[in-house]
Amino acid sequence: MDRSLKVQAGAIKTRNVLTRAERIARLKEIDRFDPEANIVGMAKTRVPKVSLKRKKKVKKEDDAK
Questions:
Q1: What CA–CA distance (Å, rounded) separates 29 from 36?
Q2: How far apart are CA 9 and CA 1, in angstroms?
Q3: How large is the greatest C-alpha to C-alpha distance in the chain, in angstroms?
Q4: In the prediction, which pLDDT does 24 show?
C-alpha cells in the first residue's frame, strides 16, 4: 500500500457498529450473553468511545534574557 493512502492514527474515528464477535464479547463482560438465544435477536450494546489523549506542550523558559 502506498504511504499516501495510509490513515494516520489521529484520524481514526469511533465506529458506531460492533461486529458480531465484539458484541458477543461485550455481552459476556456484562453477563447478558445467552448462548441458547437466537443470534438475530441479540441484545444491544453501547459502543465504548475511545478518545486519544493529547500530549501537553512543555514551555521552555529562555535563560538568555
A1: 17
A2: 16
A3: 74
A4: 92
